[in-house]
Backbone:
């Protein structure tokens, strides 16, 4: 049973549809995710791939026109297992959201109350689930601000969000998220609105907090540089499904799905090369229409006949690495990874080797 | 007055920004958004301005296009002084050959107007084309150039994706065949793959039309890809200016170095370089004391006489 005990969250065959006046949009078309304890899982993909919708559905914060068609989201906490999708909103708000699972959004300005001081916001949150004396809440607030790397917490407690820089605000948001000692932290593009130097510091902060507290993190981002820095595991999403998943090494050193190849190739290289940047041809599929076969097939230069007819299953490539592409089928002809990407991976590995050797 | 490799007598110079200061007075507090900024842009060149938010990147673009009125300094476009022009009409007249691409393709296109109308309007403001037929032809050309089929001119912005809307925003900037395009964070709101499409397109357009581009961005890898020369901004000061190769291969200013080191490397094994943490208060650098020091004919850095040998000397590099 030790295997099961280590799993924090299991999402199985989740399907979410948005009811729009123009028709139904199938935003999530069968999402499977597994998150282990003490693990950072990155969800990557283009906008519209369902990264945020997937997470919002088990947090119970989907808009009113969204319908969960099927699936379960099992959350394991100590000896208890609950299905987050079947839970009443009131129960979830009391027992899960903010306490067991906390979320950090992209824009710290909209997640903080502009009319309340940082201290007032922290104290409110700290006293919302358990009635502790104000003084104790204040002391705890100072402690939390210190934990997120704010050097003068007493001063920050008295300040308002607009008086803080973007990086400081995001630190405060993280402090609030940590206030109830959650087991799972969801970060939805938490550094996208920040500059590179600040981004780096926030990532380092999240990493050190994750290690110190043994948190599990779901990290939603479209920035592969950020993914390679923070993630243990990666799930690549396309058109409402996971199409490849594995350890960060599986995905960056041995990607198998042509969409993952495209994503990796589209990252501009910091070398002298001035050749055309790679971009994935075409646009993501219209999710209001029926999709036959592999949703990526129309944009896939390696698509075979079968890709337009049947949806590929998730092929197991190793104990950690899975990909939903017919190329992984033993009957498929051997297709080599694009030479430019192969060269990049060779360089990455060489760099890693040089680094390891000092 | 700082002097940044500006060869004003050279015919090749399209735009010169000289000692530009832009201060905003708000609620009894003076915000210094731009401090003594000087650079020039040559014909057919892409000049990249990088810096974090709040560094004053956008302010400079807005000063050039006339959305901000500089506190002091001069902006010379095509040999004509732009600062000090009182009448709005005259300013528009003189900056007709400068166009702008904005960050958010959702809010920068009028949702109630067809794409064709939006582009024709740009032509009308610039006084280009005498007949509707002529303008329609230019609109069709501009749309085709950015990869939008010309027959979509009758559609409304809501009928396009974010990437397509940004293409339309670029078509609007291009339609009058300007000499300078200011692109202010024009890819920040787009997905990585769409970013690559737009950036490739900008580079092709620049090569085909010979337009100069002022590319304002915080994304260093994109700035590197597009720019011929780069200026690095921090807290309103231009700290370093040089060719793309010089900035990336031989950065001098500690801030430039920290910026380059902070770019996340696409490699799970490599930690990002942590040695170059930069903090203005602990670095003990007062930008206001700096003077321009030449590293090479095309590469300059803002620093004091004692900082220069320290940063360029063997111990600093």
Residues:
């Amino acid at each position: 049973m030790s295997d099961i005990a280590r799993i924090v969250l299991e999402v199985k065959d989740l399907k979410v549809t948005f009811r729009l006046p123009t028709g139904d949009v199938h935003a999530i078309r069968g999402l499977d995710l597994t998150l282990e304890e003490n693990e950072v899982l990155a969800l990557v993909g283009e906008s519209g791939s369902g990264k945020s919708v997937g997470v919002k559905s088990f947090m119970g914060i989907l808009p009113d026109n969204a319908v969960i068609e099927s699936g379960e989201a099992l959350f394991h906490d100590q000896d208890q297992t609950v299905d987050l999708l079947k839970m009443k909103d009131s129960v979830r708000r009391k027992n899960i959201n903010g306490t067991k699972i906390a979320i950090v959004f992209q824009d710290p300005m909209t997640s903080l109350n502009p009319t309340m001081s940082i201290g007032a916001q922290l104290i409110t949150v700290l006293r919302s689930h358990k009635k502790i004396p104000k003084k104790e809440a204040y002391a705890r607030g100072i402690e939390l601000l210190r934990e997120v790397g704010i050097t003068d917490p007493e001063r920050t407690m008295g300040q308002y969000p607009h008086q803080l820089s973007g990086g400081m605000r995001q630190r405060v948001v993280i402090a609030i998220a940590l206030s109830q000692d959650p087991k799972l932290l969801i970060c939805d593009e938490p550094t996208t609105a920040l500059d590179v130097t600040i981004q780096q510091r926030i990532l380092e902060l999240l990493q050190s907090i994750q290690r110190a507290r043994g948190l599990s993190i779901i990290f939603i981002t479209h920035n592969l540089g950020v993914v390679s820095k923070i993630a243990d595991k990666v799930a690549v999403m396309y058109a409402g499904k996971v199409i490849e998943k594995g350890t960060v090494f599986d995905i960056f050193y041995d990607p198998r799905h042509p969409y993952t190849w495209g994503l990796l190739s589209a990252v501009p290289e910091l070398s002298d090369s001035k050749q055309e940047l790679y971009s994935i041809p075409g646009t993501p599929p219209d999710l209001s229409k029926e999709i036959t076969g592999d949703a990526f097939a129309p944009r896939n230069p390696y698509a075979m006949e079968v890709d337009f007819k049947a949806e590929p299953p998730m092929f197991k490539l190793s104990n950690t690495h899975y990909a939903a592409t017919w190329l992984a089928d033993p009957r498929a002809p051997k297709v080599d990874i694009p030479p430019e990407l192969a060269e990049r991976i060779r360089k990455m590995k060489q760099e890693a080797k040089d680094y390891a050797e000092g | 007055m700082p002097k940044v490799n500006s060869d004003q007598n050279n015919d090749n110079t399209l735009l010169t920004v000289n000692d530009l200061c832009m201060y905003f007075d708000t609620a009894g507090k003076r915000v210094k958004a731009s401090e003594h900024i000087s650079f020039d842009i040559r014909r057919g060149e892409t000049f990249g301005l990088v810096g974090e938010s709040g560094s004053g990147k956008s302010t400079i673009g807005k000063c050039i296009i006339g959305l901000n009125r500089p506190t002091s300094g001069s902006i010379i476009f095509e040999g004509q002084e732009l600062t000090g022009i009182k009448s709005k009409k005259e300013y528009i007249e003189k900056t007709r050959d400068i166009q702008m691409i904005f960050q958010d393709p959702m809010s920068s296109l009028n949702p109630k107007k067809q794409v064709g109308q939006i582009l024709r309007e740009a032509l009308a403001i610039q006084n280009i084309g005498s007949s509707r037929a002529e303008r329609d032809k230019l609109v069709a050309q501009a749309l085709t150039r950015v990869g939008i089929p010309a027959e979509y001119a009758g559609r409304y912005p809501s009928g396009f994706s974010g990437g397509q809307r940004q293409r339309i925003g670029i078509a609007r900037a291009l339609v009058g065949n300007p000499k300078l395009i200011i692109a202010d964070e024009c890819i920040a709101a787009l997905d990585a793959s769409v970013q690559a499409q737009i950036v490739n397109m900008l580079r092709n357009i620049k090569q085909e039309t010979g337009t100069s581009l002022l590319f304002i961005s915080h994304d260093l890898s994109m700035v590197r890809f597009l720019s011929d020369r780069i200026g690095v901004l921090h807290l309103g000061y231009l700290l370093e200016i040089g060719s793309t190769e010089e900035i990336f291969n031989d950065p001098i200013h500690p801030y430039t170095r920290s910026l380059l080191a902070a770019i996340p490397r696409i490699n799970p094994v490599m930690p990002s370089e942590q040695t170059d943490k930069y903090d203005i208060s602990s670095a003990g650098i007062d930008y206001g004391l700096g003077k321009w020091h030449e590293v090479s004919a095309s590469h300059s850095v803002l620093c004091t006489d004692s900082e220069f040998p320290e940063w360029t000397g063997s111990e600093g590099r």
